[in-house]
Amino acid sequence: MPRVYNFSAGPGTLPEEVLLQAAEEMLDWHGTGQSVMEMSHRGKDFISIAEKAEADLRKLLGIPASHHLLFLQGGASLQFEMIPMNLIQGRAVADYINTGEWAKKAINAAGSLADVNLAASAEDRAFTYVPAQLDWQLSERAAYVHYTANETINGVEFGWVPDVGEVPLVSDMSSNLLSRPLDVGRFGLIYAGAQKNIGPAGLALVIVREDLIGIGEPRPPAMLDYATHVKAGSMYNTPPTYAVYVAGLVFQWLLETGGLAAAEQRNIAKAELLYDFIDGSEFYLNPVEKPDRSRMNIPFRLSNPDLEAEFLTGAAKNDLVELKGHRSVGGMRASLYNAMPIEGVQALVDYMAEFAATKG
Ligand SMILES: *Cc1c(COP(=O)(O)O)cnc(C)c1O
Q: Of 256, 271, 287, at which residue does a domain stop?
């Protein structure tokens, strides 16, 4: 069977070149006679894989020396809890911006560990926009400001980086990290589960500024303390070795294809192709305000919701899969991560046009 175009929001599609290289190296990595899966995480072969992954990601994102890069487990969801545990001292307040389903999860998780100030919310208009920074009600002395850079479910993305002065800026970039260049130096902490735009599930990336390490009060348990993982170079316990290896192949692929500026240009072209088609059609609708639309996750509705099941069945017959929207919002969703080629988006648009012509 040929490969399908996989529009899943996560785990998401990976570059075919990366999968082919992983397949080629499956039984024998670089003449070691072993799969990466079977290697000791403390042996020199795996150490070289992890070091190259770190160096390549640092190069891609231009991560400054002031920031540590951690390869952790527990997904982005564990970070919802580790962030307040590590950054809050005593009864300090943390500011959160509520832009959708994932922001709400982060807020709920922090609620039992910190005094959360909801500084802004887009719930009044069903999470179809990013609240302008002028309207944020930030606290006097927040321990940090948290926002969700891309709402994977609602299809809302920050096209800008908030300016919060000296307060550490913390961002969940699970579904848009590596989709565009980023000024990492402006952030106190960035985190992302790998399975959206980076690599296999099981790995989470945390980029954290040195001065935010070891300040949480009370001190978190060792496994949940960034200081532990910084000190151990992300090898306090067995890291998700195979996921680190595949993510490393993705970093290498991004470097070889022109880095993040080139990835951004490809992502703009793909997103425009789909949004322009949706906006030009009476049959499909995307409710998000144009400047705040996500390039990565594009939710859309059919003017006649009764046709949704038929739309999905027909799409699958055309090798266009995982287009069903998240259960919490319904409708359709096309995720256009870095590894989705523009040919996949064109095939989707062609199918959508044909479906609308016959059913509209
Ligand atoms: C998927 C996702 C999460 C949760 O990730 P897990 O790795 O499943 O914990 C959190 N935030 C955003 C923006 C996501 O897209």
A: 256
Q: Which of 210, 228, 256 is the last residue of a domain?
A: 256
Contact 173, 207 (CB under 8 A): no
Does residue 313 share a domain with residue 192? no
* CB proximity list for 21: less than 8 A, separation 6 or greater: 249
CA distances from 6 to 151, 307, 347 (A): 19, 21, 12
Domain that holds residue 165: 24-256
Contact between residue 61 and residue 255 where contact means Cβ atoms under 8 Å apart = no
Whether 297 and 326 share a structural domain: yes
Residue nearest to atom 5 of ligand 1 (CA): 76
Q: How many CB atoms lie within 10 A of CB 304?
A: 12
83 within 8 A of 191, measured Cβ to Cβ: yes
Same domain (yes/no): 221, 276: no
Mean local confidence (pLDDT), 209-214? 98
Q: Whose CA is nearest to atom 4 of ligand 1?
A: 76
- 259-279 and 44-61 are packed helices; what angle lies between their axes, rounded to 10 degrees? 60
Work out whether strand 67-72 and strand 204-209 pair parallel, antiparallel, or are unpaired: antiparallel
What is the number of structural domains in the chain? 2
Q: Tell me the CA–centroid distance for residue 185 and ligand 1, in Å.
A: 23
Residue 193, classified by CB atoms within 10 Å of its CB into exposed (0-12), middle (13-18) or buried (19+), is buried
pTM, to two decimals: 0.98
Alpha-carbon distance values, 330 to 28, 268, 300, 325 (Å): 44, 25, 9, 5
Q: Are residues 51 and 11 in the same domain?
A: no
pLDDT digits (tens, 9 = 90+) for 229-266: 999 999 999 999 999 999 999 999 999 999 999 999 99
- Grouping H, G, I as helix, E, B as strand and the rest as coil, residue 220 is coil
CATH number for position 152? 3.40.640.10
Nearest atom of ligand 1 to the alpha carbon of 201: 7
